[in-house]
Write a structure and sequence with these properties.
- The structure holds 2 protein chains of 2 kinds.
- Chain A is extended and about 100 Å long.
- Chain A has a domain of about 60 residues.
- In chain A, the strands form 2 sheets. Chain A has a 5-stranded mixed beta sheet with strand order 4-3-2-7-8, with helices on one face. A two-stranded antiparallel sheet of chain A has the order 5-6.
- Chain A starts with 13 loop residues before the first helix and ends with a strand.
- Helices cover about 50% and strands about 15% of the residues of chain A.
- In chain A, strand 2 and strand 3 form a beta hairpin.
- Chain A is an alpha/beta fold.
- Chain B is α/β, with parallel strands linked by helices.
- Chain B has one domain.
- Chain B is about 25% helix and about 20% strand.
- In chain B, strands 1, 2, 4, 5, 6, 7 and 8 form a 7-stranded mixed beta sheet that branches.
- In chain B, strand 7, helix 4 and strand 8 form a beta-alpha-beta unit.
- The chains are: A alpha/beta, B alpha/beta.
- Chains A and B meet through helix 1, strand 1 and helix 5 of A and helix 1, strand 3, helix 2, strand 7 and helix 4 of B.
Chain lengths: ~250, ~160
């Protein structure tokens, strides 16, 4: 039998096929990423009497059913001003406490005070473990210890004698009503997030000489302990305690 | 004049094709409700969570079928995995959102070992959706039995440079 030459496959239409596929993926691709504000929602706890919070420690940002805005009993129009109120709330007493104004106080804690607290809690834990206390109570103490260790690292990084800290009860409240548009609610979240970013960015530039966004991205990628400590410091200086108040029916 | 040699054209096209194939994230579902997100900045990107399948999306908007709008509280409906839920008013006798979260969690592949608390619930709400509905759903998430504190996310469109 004569050897038959194998015919080559015509690949001329290959490009057409690839083009079709290409166009399909071009059309179906959505480049936009999912962007969101992440929040934790607390579990319901039964308390007999709610904790009293001083008025100066609350920054209430409210919007009603007609989408009108109010911050600390002041009505205003421009939603872009919310971030200025948030900045004011954090900055007013930051350098020096002034009891006459209506803004949260700052406490300044020294290294020796931190060491003292750590020693006290360590002693308590030892006692509790000897007495065979319940595990969750001991764990609670361990968490407290972690907080103080974090503060210790933060103060070392801060490089000052004292670590300024806003009042523990200082919080930002987002209060909306049933029919408030989601865009207004989201705008409030945006403004708070922008203000806190600005505060942390300022400190990040001053202390570490780099923008906060760079630090955050580097931490997200490498999860290095030193970046973690820097992030912790900025969070201790400007904590984001946001409470979303459930609207009344 | 000799024609241009086009034999490397398929290679170029294939390169482009592969780029788009890799870059594509196909939409998981096309919600049965219309959602136009509001804009915002300084957001967190959900992509890493999505890659670990640690985020559930719920959609809140006007139903695409306008005839159905009257069935829902203030005309806005909740869509869970493309199923429009009956009116959220007064909330359900059973915790629909909680049930949905649990079912979704049970169906997760075994390689996903993170606990149910670490699965973010992301609200994709229309810009005009009433905030009251968001808080209704939020309350349902709070009330899921035997589960610790949950994490939620409010989706917005971020036009800032990423």
């Amino acid at each position: 039998m004569a050897k038959r030459e194998i015919e080559e496959i015509n690949a001329g239409s290959m490009a057409d096929i690839a083009f079709l596929l290409l166009i399909f993926f071009l059309v179906t691709t959505t480049m936009d990423k999912d962007q969101a504000y992440i929040r934790r929602i607390p579990k319901k706890v039964e308390v007999s009497k709610p904790v009293d919070v001083e008025k100066r420690n609350i920054l209430a940002i409210k919007a009603n059913n007609q989408n009108q805005l109010m911050v600390r009993d002041m009505i205003f129009e421009d939603p872009n001003k919310i971030s200025d109120f948030v900045l004011e709330f954090y900055k007013m007493n930051e350098k020096k406490n002034d009891p006459t104004n209506n803004f949260p106080m700052y406490s300044r804690i020294t290294m020796s005070a931190i060491d003292q607290n750590i020693a006290v809690i360590e002693g308590e834990i030892e006692q509790m473990e000897e007495a065979g206390m319940k595990a969750d109570i001991v764990n609670f103490k361990y968490n407290q210890l972690d907080e103080w260790e974090k503060k210790k690292r933060a103060l070392k990084l801060y490089g000052d004698n004292e670590l300024p800290e806003i009042h523990v009860q200082a919080n930002i409240r987002v209060e909306v009503q049933q029919a408030t548009a989601y865009s207004i609610f989201a705008k409030m979240q945006t403004e708070i997030e922008e203000a806190i970013f600005e505060l942390r960015n300022g400190e990040c530039e001053r202390l570490f000489g780099m923008p906060y966004s760079v630090l955050k991205r580097r931490y997200d990628q490498d999860k290095k302990a030193e970046d973690q400590a820097m992030m912790d410091l900025l969070e201790i200086l400007y904590p984001a305690r946001i409470i979303e108040v459930t609207p009344k029916k | 004049m000799p024609g241009v040699n086009t034999s490397s054209l398929p290679d170029i096209v294939f390169m482009l094709l592969f780029f788009f194939m890799v870059a594509t994230t196909s939409k998981e579902n096309d919600p049965t409700v219309k959602v136009e997100s509001p804009v915002g900045t300084k957001t967190t990107e959900l992509t890493p969570y999505k890659q670990r399948s640690e985020v559930d999306f719920l959609y809140l908007g006007k139903p695409r079928n306008p005839m159905r709008a009257a069935d829902f509280k203030m005309g806005y409906a909740l869509s869970l995995d493309n199923v429009v839920q009956p009116t959220v008013d007064g909330l359900y006798t059973t915790n629909v959102v909680g049930q949905w979260k649990r079912d979704k969690f049970d169906q997760k592949p075994p390689r996903m070992t993170a606990p149910i608390e670490s699965v973010i619930t992301c609200f994709k709400a229309d810009r005009n959706a009433p905030s009251g509905l968001i808080f209704d759903i939020r309350k349902e998430l709070q009330d899921i039995k035997g589960v610790g504190s949950m994490t939620i996310a409010y989706a917005v469109r971020d036009n800032g440079n990423i």
